[in-house]
Amino acid sequence: MNEPIVSVGILTEKEIRFDLYGEFTLRGADKKFSGKFKVKLNGDRILLSQDKKEIFSSDEIFFNPNDLETESFLLRDVLIGKGFHWQSKENQRFRGRLKFIKEKDQITAINILPLEEYLTSVISSEMSANSSIELLKAHSIVSRGWLLAQQEKKNKKAVNEIIGEDEIIRWYDREDHTNYDFCADDHCQRYQGVTKIINDNAVNAIASTRGLVLKYKDMICDTRYSKCCGGITEVFENVWENVSHPYLGSILDYKFRFDDDRTDIQKENFADHWINSTPQTFCNTTDERILSSVLVNFDHSTNDFFRWNVEYTQDEIAELIKTKSGIDFGNIIDLIPIERGPSTRIIKLQIVGTKKTITIGKELEIRKILSKTHLYSSAFVIEKGKIIKRVPQKFILHGAGWGHGVGFCQIGAAVMGELGYGFDEILMHYFNGAEIHKIY
User: Fold this and answer.
1) Quick one: 200 exposed, middle or buried, by C-beta within 10 A (0-12, 13-18, 19+)?
2) From start to end of 341-401, where are the E strands?
3) Checking phi first, is residue 283 left (phi over 0); if not, alpha (psi -120 to 50) or beta?
4) Model confidence pLDDT, tens digit, residues 77-92
5) Mean pLDDT for the chain overall
6) Are the C-beta atoms of residues 333 and 355 closer than 8 Å to each other?
7) DSSP result, 192-220
8) pLDDT for the residue numbered 21
9) Quick one: DSSP state of residue 142?
């Protein structure tokens, strides 16, 4: 197998401003291009201009760098964290080819580049380039495997749902993109170009793991990851399609099991005990030095990822659920966990209202409906307060973890790296039964 070439959709807008650093050739033109430019739509064609002067028009604009290593381009006002609480815009710089296409009534900027170059940015965007080298090596293999596994699963539905009279179950996977392989944001993998590569750590991590992936029974593993599992990882089928992957089983995020075996953690009394405690696990850390090397700038505002609380008044939660679900439940009487996974994440939640009672799932649907953006996770227990005529005036969600919790726990892995675990030991901890293979 040769190193794949990947295409990444970076930005979609009515108008895009960008800078070319170095010399780029433009398909369909006979001169070199550098400097500041703008593209916008003119009917069905994309219009390229420089210094307010129109210089080129086509249904597709394609720039090639003369030298992949030394030349780059900058896209202005790239949206990051779309739909999450850290959503913002920033300028980002990239290497590789730059392509502009028309999608409906907007323009999309696409970066086309070799897989290993792409991964160097991914692990610097998902983590900090100051992270330990063993963590970056492990994440390189995880990100590479995830990407290749998604390529093999193309054309599957991104959103699946089962809707009944009193039940709405949805699960969301990576969206297949028609005109490029991946998006650049959290919905696929964070990819923010060379802007985040501030030292040689990521470059060295990618170079030393080139072509390495995890395999299980000769299949490339779908190596999922999240920010913080909360102490126990979740299983694949509780988050996405109902398919079991043995290497994505649930594990305690520590070097040994506790004396009191928590096999019944999915039951409410055990879930309450687990979430309202602070067990010793890899991802339970407040070490600022470790966290600052793992969390990129816009993640720093989130410092309660292991255990957290969210409080709503009756008016707030009733309006929130109505707005996010499109269903008027009336006053919210209760939130009842119907099914939990081994990480205590709620897979099915019954919302009991004065007008309507419906069970929702899976975990991301629950997180979407109970937050203006995304609840940190669906691993939470519910406390009700000040009940007046059966109607609670306050709901407090006591929660654990950040993200879906399946597979690789980024903060847990960061702690393991700092404790001296090798990248292979980190991977075997989170992906039980998988093996490391070199495929190119």
Assistant:
1) exposed
2) 346-353, 357-361, 380-388, 391-400
3) alpha
4) 998 766 665 678 889 9
5) 91
6) no
7) -GGGG--SSHHHHHHHHTTTEEEEETTEE
8) 97
9) H
- Tokens representing 41 are 């739509």
State the pLDDT at residue 172.
87
Alpha-carbon span 73 to 92, nearest angstrom: 8
Strand partners, 12: 108
List, in sequence order, every beta strand (DSSP E) within 314-373: 332-340, 346-353, 357-361
Buried b (16+ CB within 10 A) or exposed e, 210-229: eebbbebeeebbbbbbbbbb
Q: How far is 143 from 122, CA to CA, in rounded Å? A: 8
Q: How far apart are CA 205 and CA 142, in angstroms?
A: 12
Token pair belonging to 358: 């419906």
pLDDT at 128: 76
- CA–CA distance, 56 with 427 (Å, rounded to integer): 49
Cα–Cα distance, 379 to 375 (Å, whole number) = 10
Residue type, 275: I
Mean pLDDT confidence for 215-229: 96
The pLDDT value recorded for residue 295 is: 74
Q: For residue 245, is pLDDT > 90?
A: yes
SS3 54: strand
Give the global pTM: 0.90
**DSSP strand pairing (391-400 vs 307-313):** antiparallel
Q: Residue 381: CA atoms inside 13 Å, Cβ hemisphere, count?
A: 17
- Place 199 in a pLDDT band, splitting at 50, 70 and 90: confident
What angle, 0 to 180 degrees and rounded to 10, lies between the N-to-C axes of helices 133-152 and 201-208?
60
> Any idea how long the chain is?
440
User: Quick one: tokens of 340?
Assistant: 């939990």
